Amino acid sequence: MADQxxxxxxxxxxxxxxxxxxxxxxxxxxxxxxxTIANVALRYIAGGLAVSGDEASxxxxxxxxxxxxxxxxxxxxxxxxxxxxxxxxxIALFTVSSLLCGMAWSLQALxxxxxxxxxxxxxxxxxxxxxxxxxxxxxKRNQGFALxxxxxxxxxxxxxxxxxxxxxxxxxxxCFLINVPVGLISLVLIYFIIPSSDKEKESRRKLWAKGxxxxxxxxxxxxxxxxALEVVLDRGQIDDWFGSSFITTxxxxxAVALLLFIPxxxxxxxxxxxxxxxxxxxxxxxxxxxxxxxALLIATTQVLPQLLQDQFNYTATLAGLAISPGGLVTMxxxxxxxxxxxxxPRYLIAVGASICAFAMIDLLRMTPDVDFSFFAWSRIYLGIxxxxxxxxxxxxxxxxxxxxxxxxxxxxxxxxxNFGGSIGVSLSQAVLAQRSQFHQSRLVEHIGSWNPIYNDxxxxxxxxxxxxxxxGSASGSSLAYVGNLxxxxxxxxxxxxxxxxxxxxxxxxxPLALSLRPVRKTGGAAAAH
Length: 529
Known about the structure:
By secondary structure, the chain is mainly α. The chain has two domains: 17-214 and 272-438 and 489-528, Up-down Bundle (Growth Hormone, Chain: A); 215-271. 77% of the residues lie in helices and 0% in strands. The chain has helices at residues 17-33, 42-49, 53-56, 58-81, 83-102, 107-135, 141-169, 174-177, 179-193, 198-210, 216-235, 245-266, 275-278, 281-311, 316-322, 324-338, 345-362, 372-398, 406-444, 452-468, 474-514, 524-528. Helix 6 packs antiparallel against helix 7.
């Protein structure tokens, strides 16, 4: 349908697309916030539930796994039951599970409720994006995606700050309870304000006439693949990777599930995941770029607060505040990038990836005496670069995709972001652990009575302890002090290696971005249909 000027109308007729965009952005913000809000609260959760730090980390990973799994089926569910209906159910389940998480009495209960929360959240994000694509005509989608992008990119940045403040001043329970009032308000407003699409109803009627042909086997296989792979990534470093029969078994299970999933999906008329979309140059490249973008966004959002708390003795609140300036910059850049629709997405993505790489390279200058502003500026650089990737990649991924596959495309792009984040966190932790051991072994090689620098340092430390200690052995305390100093330096060098790895990954996005084809300014294939 077109208006008098020839511009294609949205599927929601005369409904205000900006009001729709605000409502779905708020709901999406709430969901994406929960991917990182618990990161800085893990110590509080471990202490409150009397579990180890490793066990508490499952609070983050179970959410990401459940989130990624349901994304694979969200396109089918949205098509069969309607975007609005599915969105409302997801918000309701997310709100209830958030309340249960805040009331959890044990780690086992918390993990069950986090899985419920992840399943609900995994359905919310892609459907919100599909609603935006339907609410705006193709000529204005870029601006709508900019508002949506603020929620998706800023929420993981705000998460640690908010989670740290809530944990320090109230309790870790409020990291989840805060979702309840937002969820209830969103549920009511979306129900009354967002209309149902007549075009979508007709499409749904035709699909039900053919029968609800849900790909159960495909869903089971992708669930096994993603779930087992996440176990390998999350527990690999702790259990010595393939030196462990547990990790080896799960790696084999994941590989077998993937090998069975590919031919099964390729031979189905209505597959759960359209693998042929991933094989195309445009969408496949967008998928990979979003995978890397998710890894950068989520990994840095977890690694930086962890670094600040472990090595620089920041509180959870202060660690969150150190990355908050980047969130403000991101919000501003989202508005700016939303108005750069006249620039081809591939050029914007290449520039954004280069800026993200610079942000990581700048962190290589880190020393034990850097201050708050050093880390704040690193997040500002990242806050400039990420919007230049996120909005254009969303626009480019829809180019050439017919309206009937909008939900599928949205689900796959969001799956890439979420699972990319999970991979980024797991691999960052693996690099951190392995390089800490490497640097520690190298530094220890220089410790010995034959080294005059070591002897001089040890004598100075012993003299200090003798002058200030009332009891105890100055010799033993000085050796322990030197040992802790070596460990601290090794860990700091390992964090630098993590940032070096993330910089290399960001650089790889530049040639991928330039390989994208130019996006047609008339709205692409969607407009033609």
